[in-house]
Batch of 2 targets.
Target 1
Amino acid sequence: MLIQHGLHNALKRGELAIHYQPKYALDQGNIVGAEALLRWFSPELGTVSPAEFIPIAEETGFIVDIGCWLIERVCQTMNHWRKQGAVLAPVAINISPIQFHRGNLYKTLSRAIADHAIDPALIQIELTEGVVMNRQQSTIELLHSIKSLGVAISIDDFGTGYSSLSYLRHLPIDEIKIDRSFIMEITDAGSLTDTRLTAIPLAVIDLAKNLNIKLVAEGVETEVQSNFLRENGCFIIQGYWFSKPVDEAAMLGFWRRA
Ligand code: G
Ligand code: G
Ligand code: MN
Ligand code: NA
C-alpha cells in the first residue's frame, strides 16, 4: 500500500511536520494554549491529510512511533520557542487510542519533558471519550500517572462518543473540548428558529462550569458563534475564526504577541 509504505519513509525523510492551532480566550483577548497537529508533505503523494493517514498508521501500529516522534518534537520546539523569547502557554498533543493502550506513553512523555527541560504544566494530552470511558484499571492508573507528572488531560471531540458522563467525576480530567459538529449548528438563522441547535453547547457549558472543568469550543468559524459562546460563558475558542493551524515559525509569532 502506497500510504503505508510511504509513512515509514516519511518519518525517516523528515516529511512529517507539526502545525499549531492557537486557543484564544475571548474574555482576556490573548492566546492561552495551542494544539499540535500532524502534517505530511509527501513528494510522491502530495499533502496527505491526517484524517487519511492516521487510521492507516493505527492499523499497522506505526502510530506509536509517529506519536513518540511527535511528543519529542513538540518538546524540542517548545524549548526552541522559549529560547527565542516566547511566553508559552500549554501545548496539547493528540494521543491515538493505540498509543495510549500500547505505547509507553508515561515514559515517552516524562523523558521528552526532562530532556528538553519543559515545565510539565505546559504539556497537555488530548484523548477521545472512547479511551477514558472504559473502566479498566490500567486506563485509570495511566491517567493518574500522567497527571502526577503534571501533564493536563483534555477530552477531545466531546459529546460525540457513546459515553456515560460519570467518568468526568471519577477521572482526573482538566478540560473538555465541545466538538465542532455542535458549534457548526450555531448560526444566526438556526439558533433563532430552533433552540434545539444550541441546547447541547449550552448544556455542556453548564456541565463544565458545575464540574469545574475547563471548556474549549473547537471549530469556531464565525463571529456569530464566537459571540454566542462569549455571551453564554464559554470563553476559550479554537477554530478558523481566530486562526487556522500554522507552522512553527508563525506560532512563535503568536507567542511573542501573547
Ligand atoms: O488537522 P486536521 O483537521 O487535518 O486533522 C484531522 C484529524 O487528524 C483530526 O481528527 C485530528 O485530531 C487528527 N490528528 C491531527 N494531528 C494528530 C496527531 O498528532 N495525532 C493524532 N493521533 N491525531 C491527529
Ligand atoms: O479531532 P480534532 O479535534 O483533534 O481535530 C482537529 C482538526 O480540526 C484539525 O485538523 C484542524 O485542522 C481542524 N479544524 C480546526 N479548526 C477548524 C475550524 O474552524 N473548522 C474546521 N472545519 N476544521 C477545523
Ligand atoms: Mn484535538
Ligand atoms: Na475535534
Note: The chain is about 50% helix and 20% strand.
Target 2
Amino acid sequence: MTSPRRTFAIISHPDAGKTTLTEKLLYFGGAIHLAGEVKARGQNRRARSDWMKIEQQRGISVTSSVMTFERDGITFNLLDTPGHEDFSEDTYRTLTAVDSAVMVIDAAKGIEPQTRKLFEVCRLRSVPIITFVNKVDREGRPIFELLDEIADMLALDVAPMSWPVGMGGEFEGVLDLVTNTISRPEGDSRAFLGKTEADPKLSERWAEEIELAQAGYPEFDAEAYRNGDLTPVYFGSALKDFGVAELIGALAEHAPPPRAQPAEPAPVSPDNDEVTGFVFKVQANMDPNHRDRIAFMRLCSGTFKRGMKLTPTGHGKPIAVHSPILFFAQNRELADEAFPGDIIGIPNHGTLRVGDTLSERADVRFTGLPNFAPEILRRVQLKDPTKTKQLRKALDDMAEEGVTQVFYPEIGSNWIIGVVGQLQLEVLLSRLDAEYKVAAGLEPAPFETARWVSAENPSDLKDFMDLNRSAMAKDRDGNPVFLAKSAWEVNYIADRYSKVRFAATRER
Ligand code: GDP
C-alpha cells in the first residue's frame, strides 16, 4: 500500500530563511535522499561542483532539486525553487508541479517583492498556501501589523494557528492556538529542545493580545484554504527549531494530496490507472562529459514501475525508463515504483523537453506549462565561424532545458536568444565556453521583445508573415515568432492585423 503524498514548494524572498527551513524540515522528517547527491560520486562529484561555481560566485541557487522525507506515514516531496528573481521562469514551471506551497516570511520584513510575485503564480493556479512567519526569536514587526499586511497585500484571509509570545529579547515561546500548548526556549541557545507546556499561564499582556487575535481573525477553514482563499499562519524560528514540527503537521493534516491535472482531452485524475506525467524541468551538467540530462517528471496518475515504456506525446518513440531516479527511495538500488505526486528523474540525451507529457498510450497532453515572452533579446556573435554547428547544438540544448529561448530569423544568419532575466545570459556564456567549447559574445539585437503568432485562418498568418519577413523568426520547435522593436510596436502591429493572435506566453 502506498503512503499518502504531499508534493509542495517553499516560496519566499531571498534571506527569509528558506534554506534553513528546508534543512530543518528534512532533519525533522528524517530525510532519506537529497537530489543534489544524484550521480555525484567520484569524478562526477567534481564535475558537478565545477558547475556549482557559478552558483557560489553569485551566492544563489541556479539549479533546483527535489527532496523527500517521510513522517507519520506520509511521504513529503519538497520541490526546491531557485530564489533569485532572474530565474522566475524556472520557478514558475516548478510551481506547476506542486499541489501546495509554504510561504516563508521574515517577521521583521513582512511581504517582500519576490514573495509577492511567487504568490501571484500560486494564485493563478489556485495553489493553496500555508504561511510560516520566520525569525520570531528576533525582534520583528508587530504581529497584528504583519497579519494585516498579508491579508491586504495578498487579498487573502489569514487564520493564525499559533502565536509568538513576545519576540526578540522578550521571546517566551510559541503558543499553539489549537492545542493551547507552548513550546519554550531553553539553555544558552534559547532554542526549542523539546520543552512544551500545556495550558500555560501567560502574563496579562500576552493573554490579552492572544484573546484579541482569536477574536479578530477568521478561524481556519479547510475548504477556504484548499481553494486558495485563506492561509493558515504559523509562527516560528527555523534557526531555533520553533514551529517546524507544527508546519510538517499542518502539511500532513491540511495540505491537499495530488489533485487532478489540467490536460487534453480531459483532466487527469490521480486515480487513473494509466501512467501519465509531465516534464517540468530539465537539468544538465550533472555530468557534463556525457551530456547527460535529467528530465524531472511529475507523475500524475498510475503506478510507475522501473523499465516501463513511456511515450512523449506529439513527438518521438516510446522510451523505456530503465534507470529512473526515484527521489523518495530509501535505497536507490531497490526503488522501482513511484506514485502520483512523486517526481521521477529520467536520464536522457536531450530527447525530453520541458512541457512534454509522458504516458503509456500517448493520447493525453498536459496543458498549462507556460513559455514566457523574453524581456531581453541578444544577438549571438560567434568568435570562431567553424563552430556554427556546435553553437546551434548548444543553443538548441539550452532552449530545451528552458535556460534561454532561441530564435532563428527568417532572414540573415544572426541567431537571437531571449531570456527573462540578465543572469541567464551569464549562465549561457559560461556554459557555451565550459561545456561546448564555443567562444561567443552577445551583442544588442535590434528587437526588444517577441510574440508567438498564430491565426485561425492559415492564409491570414501567411499574409502577415510575408509582409513582415524581416521581423519573423522560428523558435526551437519551428513555431513562428514575431520579433518587435518595442512593446509599442507589438500593439501597433496587433491593431493592424486583427486576425493574427500575438501571444506573450506559449503553452507547450
Ligand atoms: P534563504 O535565502 O531564504 O534561503 O535564507 P537562509 O536560510 O539562508 O537564511 C538567511 C539568514 O537568516 C541566515 O543568516 C540564517 O541563519 C538566518 N535565519 C534563518 N532562519 C532564522 C531564524 O529563524 N532566526 C534567526 N534569527 N535567523 C534566521
Note: The longest helix spans residues 422-436.
